[in-house]
C-alpha cells in the first residue's frame, strides 16, 4: 500500500514546524522564559505579545497549532531580516529586550502551552 503524497508532505511540514519551534526555543525561549519568570514586567510584556500573536492567528476561534506558530515566527524573522535584523551573536540581555525578541519569546510561550505530544 502506498502512502498518498499529501500525507507525506503534511508529515514533513509538521516535522519542519516542530524543528522551527525547537530551534527557536533553544535560541530564545529557554533563557527568555526563565528571565520572564523572574521579572514580572517582562512576563507582562510577553503575555501582551502572546495575546497579539493569538489574535493574529485567530486563536480565539480555532486552536493554535505547531504549524501556525512556526509559520508566524518564520514570517516575523523574515520581515526583520529584510529590514537588516540579524539574530543576536551574544547571549540576550532580557532586562530590556527589543520588540522582535519579545514577540519571538511570546511564540515560545504559546508553543509551551500546546499539548506536549504536538512538539515531540
Structural description of this entry:
With 120 residues, the chain is an all-alpha fold. The protein has four helices and no strands. It has helices at 5-38, 40-56, 66-82, 99-113. Helix 1 crosses helix 3, helix 1 crosses helix 4 (99-113) and helix 3 (66-82) packs antiparallel against helix 4 (99-113). It starts with a helix and ends in a 7-residue tail after the last helix.
Summary keywords:
single chain; mainly alpha
Label the overall shape.
Answer: globular
Largest sheet report: none
On the 0-100 scale, what is the average pLDDT?
A: 87
Query: Count of DSSP helices?
Result: 4
Q: How much of the sequence is in beta strands? A: under 5%
SS elements, strand count: 0
Following the backbone from N to C, one meets helices and strands in this order, namely HHHH
Q: Radius of gyration from the CA trace? A: 15 Å
Q: Are there runs of 5+ residues with pLDDT below 50, and where?
A: none
Structural class, judged by helices and strands?
mainly alpha
Estimate the helix proportion, in percent.
55-70%
Q: In angstroms, what separates the terminal alpha carbons?
A: 27 Å
Amino acid at each position: 500500500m502506498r502512502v498518498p503524497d499529501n500525507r507525506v508532505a503534511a508529515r514533513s511540514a509538521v516535522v519542519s514546524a516542530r524543528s522551527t519551534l525547537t530551534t527557536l526555543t533553544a535560541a530564545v525561549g529557554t533563557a527568555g522564559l526563565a528571565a520572564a519568570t523572574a521579572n514580572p514586567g517582562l512576563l507582562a510584556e510577553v503575555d501582551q505579545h502572546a495575546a497579539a500573536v493569538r489574535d493574529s492567528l485567530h486563536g480565539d476561534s480555532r486552536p493554535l497549532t505547531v504549524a501556525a506558530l512556526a509559520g508566524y515566527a518564520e514570517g516575523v524573522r523574515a520581515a526583520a531580516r529584510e529590514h537588516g535584523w540579524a539574530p543576536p551573536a551574544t547571549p540576550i540581555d532580557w532586562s530590556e529586550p527589543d520588540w522582535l525578541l519579545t514577540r519571538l519569546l511570546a511564540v515560545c510561550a504559546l508553543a509551551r502551552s500546546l499539548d506536549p505530544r504536538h512538539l515531540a
